[in-house]
Amino acid sequence: MNVAKAKRMLGFLKRNCAGIVGSTVLLRLYCSLVRSHFCFCSQLWAPQSSTSNLILVENIQRRATRFILRNSNLCYKAHLIKLKLLPLSYWLEYLDLVFLFKCLHWLIDY
Asked: What is the enclosing helix (H) or strand (E) of 44?
């Protein structure tokens, strides 16, 4: 499952990028390496249709934001605002809307 791959990749980042101080670098690594795993084909496996799947996916982002903003005692919502990220439920709905737009305007390669 894509959630397991994302967990493994986040663990890889935590082990190998602990010395990186800049949060922008860690944020880019998270977005490109971790979030891409559970956003890939999200229209098919639809984690937003099941609350248990959405909770699993959201927990990964919670851990990632805590890792990126290491010495921050803020809540999860404040982490998202500081990093300019959307909650994953919103992000997945955004991807669904983009996919729908592409389908309606014949921008999908079959």
From this structure: helix 42-45
For 26-81, the pLDDT digits (tens) are: 999 999 999 988 777 777 777 667 788 888 889 999 999 999 999 888 999 999 99
What is the value of pTM for the model shown? 0.84
Q: Please count the residues of the chain.
A: 110
Give the whole-angstrom CA distance, residue 83 versus residue 7. Answer: 20
35 burial via Cβ count (<10 Å: 0-12, 13-18, 19+): buried
DSSP output for 64-102? HHHHHSTT----HHHHHHHHT---HHHHHHHHHHHHHHH
Q: How many of the other CB atoms lie within 10 Å of CB of 26?
A: 22
Provide the 3-class DSSP secondary structure of residue 56: helix
Other CB atoms within 10 A of residue 32 CB: 10
Q: Which of 82, 40, 34 is nearest to 58 (CA)?
A: 34
